[in-house]
Design brief:
With 375 residues, the chain is mainly α. The protein is 58% helix and 4% strand. It has 16 helices and five strands. Strands 3-5-4 form a three-stranded antiparallel β-sheet. A hairpin with a 4-residue loop joins strand 1 and strand 2.
Amino acid sequence: MKNFIAGKYKQQREYKSFTPTFINAPFAWENSQINLLIERAAKLLGELNAYAELRPNVNFSIPMNVVKEATYSNQIEGTKTELDEAVLPQGEINPQRRDDWQEVQNYIEALNFAIAKLSELPLSVRLLKAIHKILMSGVRGKHKAPGEIRRTQNWIGGSTPSDAFFVPPSAEDIPDLLSDLEKFWHNESLQIPKLIKIAITHYQFETIHPFLDGNGRCGRLLIILQLIDAQILSKPVLYMSTFFERHRNAYYDSLSMVRKSKDLEQWITFFLNGIVETAEDGLETFKAIVALQEEYATNILTLGPRSENARKLLQILYATPIINVRRVEMELGISFSSANRLLKSLTELGILKEITGYSRNRLFVLEKYLNLFRS
């Protein structure tokens, strides 16, 4: 990679855009730390995947992994929605914060849609366009051609391309760049570890910036899709956006350094460190979930005949850890009064906590469990 050429600047009218070099080519690296990081990351991802495959109860919590990824990916873009809000129904969200909340919901929908489509469609620009359309539906950027590759210039930072922090390639260069990116994904003749491919893809996608808006979210979502498409993971159990949010400045600086200094190895090192850190966090979370589930299972045995409904309710709460009486009534097919008694019993056991303070329209949270996902 010492001979890597990041790209070239192209003079437009009053500004220069940056056109990255095609990446569908062999890569080699000199930094031996990268080899160690690949080995460490692959081991941790294997362990993380094993939890999802072999621990049935852990599967109930996978929707919360998606919620966490969606929440932090959107926070990088400036939304204010917190994890607690992300799992609330729309009616419970402050009207002034509903736009941010909707962006998180769109990310969740887009990720779930994309994973389902991977069984029918190859990883492709076509799929990315469908994802982008969902991401941008009814939110900021809804008028910026959702689901369409841009036909005009965009830029990052500043009020115009002339004073921008970064100006991606001109629209006329994008079709060839995306074609090259697709070929890179599916070129099995390249002797490159999948994790390196995913790291390079993220850099290249963010540099191309193919949409008018939503490129950051789409690019981070693509990481999960590539991990699943490469069969490194079978389910979305990695939330890289927490790492990028925690190290936001370093994340942007590392991407910029590739373009400015041609130093692709430092970006790959940064990315692989992110995989390692996030996978370690994910494993700790899964271990804590299993321990907490065992604690809950023991505690609800004291409920006698109601313990079976309590078990079913907990399985629902592992996916959506905030609930009201009406939903319990509907999900379990029991009467309103029975649902109320069940929630009261679980609150008395310290499993649930009422969070509104109201006598009606109350909400109950599986607080210890939700805390496991807070970054």
